[in-house]
Design a protein that fits this description.
The chain has 2 domains: about 110 residues, Glutaredoxin (3-Layer(aba) Sandwich); about 110 residues, Glutathione S-transferase Yfyf (Class Pi), Chain A, domain 2, CATH 1.20.1050.10. About 45% of the residues lie in helices and about 5% in strands. A 4-stranded mixed sheet has the order 2-1-3-4, with helices on one face. A hairpin with a 6-residue loop joins strand 3 and strand 4. The chain is globular. The structure holds glutathione.
């Protein structure tokens, strides 16, 4: 490590290196929760309202809804609104009411007698799977295996995003110790997945489930070289079974639709800041099956 740091006896906010150095996201991080400003959330015409952004966690939800619509569940029609986390919109009062943790994605289902809030992407996937009876097998062994991998994703991805991604791509300066530590862990995670996918077509067996929907935007995208500019660094080509699986998932029409919803950066032909009906996709070209 280049610099020694002696932690003070009591940590205070002003003392963080992050705040002083101006690392990416330093300006929006705070050690307290709660709203910073008043802002009501917009409400569209459908029972399901999504408040999100097309990050890997956000995409899980819009892909799930597009998959449900592709299966003919008209009740999965939804409005999707942008919560721009780089502008601090996750700290608006309306958003904090539906997710006290101030992180996208969050969803409100207004088809109940009282609007029902659902936050945490894993909770949203399970909620929608149970509501529509899809992508979560009812057979006990298959259901447990799906939940095993869904929880694996929820527990593992913070080490990928908050650990590896943060120190490799976002920290103000590269530091050997955290980059080594998190690269070791992320490569181990990729190897876990690769070995599983050597044995099974989809993550949890022979069926496409919410485990695939949760894992593909993170580990599929990482293997495709789409996250943190780390394709070469992580030798992603060595994870051949992940590659076979993610190519299959990424070629799904519903996946391609869900991926562009609430996207406000990158290729303009792949951005749909808000989504209010299936016709919103008419001007886009998808080669998915
Ligand atoms: N465990 C949460 C994680 C959500 C999360 O970390 N969301 C990020 C974007 S991918 C976020 O909203 N960050 C804003 C912030 O940290 O202020 C989930 O899966 O829903």
């Amino acid at each position: 490590m280049s610099e020694e740091y002696t932690p003070p006896r009591v940590w205070t906010w002003e003392q963080t290196t992050d705040q002083k150095s101006g690392g990416k996201f330093a300006a929006i991080n705070r050690p307290v929760s709660g709203a910073t400003h008043d802002k009501a959330l917009p409400v569209g015409k459908h029972p399901i309202q999504v408040y999100s952004l097309a990050t890997p966690n956000g995409v899980k939800v819009t892909v799930m809804l597009e998959e449900l619509l592709a299966k003919g569940h008209a009740g999965a029609e939804y409005d999707a609104w942008v919560i721009n986390i780089t502008e601090g919109q996750q700290f608006g009062s309306g958003f904090v009411e539906i997710n006290p943790n101030s992180k996208i994605p969050a969803l409100v289902d207004r088809s109940h007698s009282k609007p029902l809030r659902v936050f945490e992407s894993g909770s949203i996937l399970v909620y929608l799977a149970e509501k529509f009876g899809e992508f979560l097998p009812t057979d006990t062994a298959k259901r447990v295996e799906t939940m095993n991998w869904l929880m694996w994703q929820m527990g593992s991805a913070p080490l990928l995003g908050g650990g590896f991604g943060h120190f490799y791509a976002y920290a103000p300066a590269p530091l050997e110790y955290p980059i080594n530590r998190y690269t070791m862990e992320v490569k181990r995670q990729l190897d876990v997945l690769d070995k599983q996918l050597e044995k099974t077509e989809y993550i949890a067996g022979d069926e496409y489930t919410i485990a695939d929907i949760a894992i593909a935007p993170w580990y599929g995208a990482l293997q495709a070289g789409l996250l943190y500019d780390a394709k070469e660094f992580l030798s992603v080509e060595t994870y051949q079974h992940i590659e076979r699986w993610r190519k299959n998932i990424f070629s799904r029409n519903a996946y391609q639709r869900g991926e562009i919803v609430n996207r406000v950066w990158g290729d303009e032909n792949k951005q749909m800041p808000e989504r209010h009906s299936a016709e919103d996709f008419d001007s886009f070209n998808f080669d998915g099956k």
